[in-house]
Specification:
The protein is α+β, with helices and mostly antiparallel strands and 368 residues long. The protein contains eight helices and 19 strands. The model has no long low-confidence stretch (mean pLDDT 97).
């Protein structure tokens, strides 16, 4: 793994004896000696701390920054006040998803786009090409920004004493700029787990000190480091999409159940005509959740059948650590709605499953 990039916390992960794996061009911790299940449970009951510094950050500034972001994303950044964040997608002209991302409004004409690490180069090229239409400046901040995710019902209690200002007023999908353990930070109440929590954007050089301060402050509450394995099982329990599994260049946000991100009432945006046509003509498939009715592990790539015919493959799948049953997602015909019976082909068996509406897990601290 010598040619892989390293986050500023790589040395910390090595000291903690994390299992490091190649992920999106980085050497990343998939789990620590505690194990994925224990890390998953810690986030659901107390708190977990994730290094997600591999994510990409693009800064957009200039007089036409809002118009530019509105053109390249399907959601509407005009709805954002300074201090608000927004989930969105970027599409190509045919309506397929280039990436899903977070949009932060840092100022009147200043935005940060947070993109998936695996799509960094593709996204940056796309953003640069489209910038030629607008009076904007782009900066790839990725190599200088560390990102820590503190997630779990105890997250606020752990973080608050380390912050330079009160964080209780920060609402979901809002952020403030301040300091954490003395380091300048964007403190964002966002996450990928279904639990209350914060994502902290800070300079690379301060990442280790802030990580250590959080671990020390959180230890009495049960905080432990958590890796990509737990992050994946947590997000799937919530039905959150993962690019490369549930989303890709060949799927549209309408098919993926992300129609709430497609603001057809705003000014023109890339992919609008294709999405309007698809909405008019109707969908031929839809991303659905399912749960196994018998024991089994529904891994990505397994065939899925409906009414005796193979209609697709499992896109995301696992045995839920919280629920103790196999759960997953697949693109199915529109007729295979909630309550429909399907089969997941696991080895030589067609394991029965039921189509359900995510989230699979509904007791997260964000819902209480």
């Amino acid at each position: 793994m010598s040619d892989l990039k390293r986050t500023p916390l790589y040395g910390v992960h090595v000291e903690l004896d994390a299992k490091l794996v190649p992920f999106a061009g980085y050497s990343m911790p998939v789990q620590y000696p505690t194990g994925i299940r224990r890390e998953h449970e810690a986030v659901r009951t107390a708190a977990g701390l994730f290094d997600v510094s591999h994510m990409g950050e693009f800064l957009v500034t200039g007089p036409e920054a809002t118009e530019y972001v509105a053109w390249i994303t399907t959601n509407d950044p005009h709805e954002l006040d300074i201090g608000d964040a927004q989930y969105s997608v970027m599409c190509h002209e045919a309506g397929g998803i280039i990436d899903d991302l977070l949009v932060y409004r840092l100022g009147e004409d200043r935005f940060r786009l947070v993109v998936n690490a695996a799509n960094h180069a593709k996204d940056w090229k796309h953003c640069q090409v489209q910038a030629g239409r607008f009076d904007v400046r782009l900066e790839d901040e990725s190599d200088g920004v560390a990102l820590l995710a503190l997630q779990g019902p105890a997250a606020q209690a752990i973080l608050a004493p380390l912050c330079s200002e009160p964080i209780d007023p920060i609402g979901f999908y809002q952020f403030r700029q301040g300091h954490v353990a003395g380091a300048p930070c964007v403190i964002s109440r966002t996450g990928y787990t279904g639990e209350d929590g914060f994502e902290l954007y800070l300079p690379n050089g301060r990442a280790v000190a802030v990580w250590e301060a959080l671990v020390e402050a959180g230890a009495p509450a049960g905080l432990i480091p958590a890796g990509l394995g737990a992050r994946d099982s947590l997000r799937l329990e919530m039905g959150y999409a993962l690019y490369g599994n549930d989303l890709d260049d060949e799927t549209t946000p309408l098919e993926a159940g992300l129609d709430w991100l497609v603001k057809l009432g705003k000014e023109a945006f890339i992919g609008r005509e294709a999405l309007e046509l698809q909405k008019k003509e109707g969908l031929t498939r839809r991303l659905r959740g399912f749960r196994l009715l018998e024991r089994g592990f529904p891994r990505a790539g397994y065939d899925v059948s409906y009414e005796g015919d193979v209609v697709g493959q499992v896109r995301s799948g696992t045995v839920s650590p919280t629920l103790g049953e196999g759960i997953g997602t697949a693109y199915l015909p529109p007729a295979a709605g909630p309550g429909a019976r399907i089969a997941i082909h696991i080895r030589d068996a067609a394991v029965p499953a039921e189509v359900v509406v995510p989230p699979f897990y509904t007791e997260g601290s964000l819902r209480k």
